[in-house]
Each structure stands twice: as C-alpha cells, then as structure tokens.
Amino acid sequence: MIRLLTAAFLFTFLSLGVTFTVIGVVLTNQQRFRLHTFRPTAAVVTASHIHYGSQGGTKSPIVHYIYHVDGKRYLGDRVLAVGGLSESGDWANKIVSQYPVGLQTRAWFNPAHPYSSFLIHQKSVMPALLFWIGVALDVMFVCGVLLVLRRALFWLLMARYADGLTPWQRPKQ
C-alpha cells in the first residue's frame, strides 16, 4: 500500500511538473513570437469592463476594440500577448481604467493573420512563472525518486546480511 501511495505521489509531481513546464515553454514562445512579429495599428476601444470569475475570486479585464488593416475592419479583445490568464484585481481595475470606451490607442496585429491582435505590447511574467513552477515540481520528483531508490538499496543490503549489520557496521577483528 505504501509503495502504491509513493508511486502515485511521485507520478503526481512528474505529471504536474511536466505539464507546467510544457505550458510555460509554449506560452513563452508564443509571447516571444507575438512581441517580435506583430505590427502596430490604430485602434478604438468599444467596450471595457471587468469579468468576475465564477467564485468571485478572480477578475479579468475585458477590452473590446476595433482596428483596421489594409482597409478591412477587425474586432479584437485580447489584452496581453498571451491572454487567458487571470491577474490580480488591482491589475484588472488598472487596465479597465486605462482603456475607457472611445479611447484611441494602439493595437498590435499579426501581419499573416490580421484578425489576431492584442493591446499591451509588454512581456508577462506568467509564462516564466509557470515554467519555473514546473521545473521545481520536476526537481521534487527527482528527489523523491532518489529517496525511494536509497530506501530500496538500504533494504536490499539489510536483507543480504542476516544479522542486520552491513560490512562497514561490523566490528573489525
């Protein structure tokens, strides 16, 4: 039973660690791509409000804006280069107050796919944070495996010597 719990515990660290690390790498690459390849264009804010999470604990700024590329009109709603991550309530309030309805601002669009855009051209710490949380969980997994191997080696040695003493514990004769 203990072995099963230990294996489940270690598997949880491994799966969460790998998941967080992969998500962090993907979001970091996505953010880097968008910050380096998207181009600026004029935009007008059409809606700006705060979305409250289902439990009321998280707030996300919702900003809708219109922008034009090559004479075509597009609608955007992404605030950061990597969106979909809730931030603190103060941050959400600040974003909504910075982007009131009617504000003429700058949006950043993908030249290859002009319908893809965002407003704030700056790095978010969230991708790096997810990556390092994943690395920490992976390190905990490796430490757990090493502890399990150490314990297994100890019991193998103890089983080999019937009197319970290993060669380095025996008195010298």
Shape: elongated
Poorly predicted tracts of residues? none
Distance between termini? Answer: 42 Å
Order of helices and strands: HEEEHEEH
The percent of residues in helical segments reads 40-55%
In what order do the strands lie side by side in the largest sheet? Answer: 3-2-1-4-5
* Main beta sheet: 5 strands, antiparallel
Number of strands: 5
User: What is the count of distinct domains?
Assistant: 2
Task: Kindly report the oligomeric state of this protein.
Answer: single chain
Radius of gyration: 26 Å
Question: The CATH topology of the largest domain, please?
Answer: OB fold (Dihydrolipoamide Acetyltransferase, E2P)
Q: How would you classify the helix and strand content by structural class?
A: alpha+beta
Query: Strand-residue fraction?
Result: 15-25%
Q: Which CATH first-tier class of the largest domain would you pick?
A: Mainly Beta
List the helices and strands and how they pair.
Blueprint: H1 2-37, E1 39-52, E2 59-69, E3 72-76, H2 89-98, E4 104-109, E5 117-118, H3 126-160
Antiparallel strand pairs: 1-2, 1-4, 2-3, 4-5
Written description of the protein model:
- The protein has a five-stranded antiparallel beta sheet.
- With about 170 residues, it is of the alpha+beta class.
Quick overview of this protein structure:
With 173 residues, the protein is an alpha+beta fold. Helices cover 47% and strands 22% of the residues.
